[in-house]
Amino acid sequence: TTGPVIQLVGASTVTIEVGSTYTDAGATSDGGETIITTGTVDTSTPGIYTITYSATDASGNQATATRTVNVVDTTDPAITVLGNNPETVEVGSTYNDAGATSDGGETVTTTGTVNTNIVDVYTITYTVTDVSGNQATATRTVNVVDTTGPVIQLVGASTVTIEVGTAYVDAGATAVDNYDGDLTSSIITTNNVDSNTIGTYSVTYDVMDASGNQAVQESRTVSVTT
Fold first, then answer.
1. Could you report the per-residue pLDDT of 44-57, keeping only the tens digit for each?
2. Rounded to the nearest 10 degrees, how much is the dihedral formed by the CA atoms of 166, 169, 170, 171?
């Protein structure tokens, strides 16, 4: 009246990663009876599965044993950042984020802002959480840059004629930058006009903005005549 004893081969609880292959280790009986195995493991779906082993001896005594198979998902989702990374945009322009996608189609949450009116380095963060609670993040660096040089505007005529011996008073110039604004006070003027010597002279104006962009040099021609 004593049933056979079933001995599992391997552990009674097995944990495998979703998407992997499960090969059952089987079981043996003390009397060499045939082991009948029932139950399936769907490795594509996380869950708890049970494999049952049954044996019946020659006297009709039956025994069973079970193995628990845990299919788990411990792998973080993969995030693909779309578009350029890092991205560079000109100050004052409009930034449209290209976004990101996840390998499992999970919703991507985007955080971070880009102020295109201020030159700086910004970070956009993308976060994804899968159904098993695994989380992944990816980032994009956005560089807001100023690559536009200031514009110099002459005050008065670009060509001036004065009589030799008279004083020359330069009318100057103004400078405006798309980001730094009024740079008139930063203009470097090179003036080599010798009003006591007949000849043609050039007064030049140069300026650079805070980002290192140089303006196109402007000049004024000054003719000293009799």
1. 999 999 999 999 99
2. -120
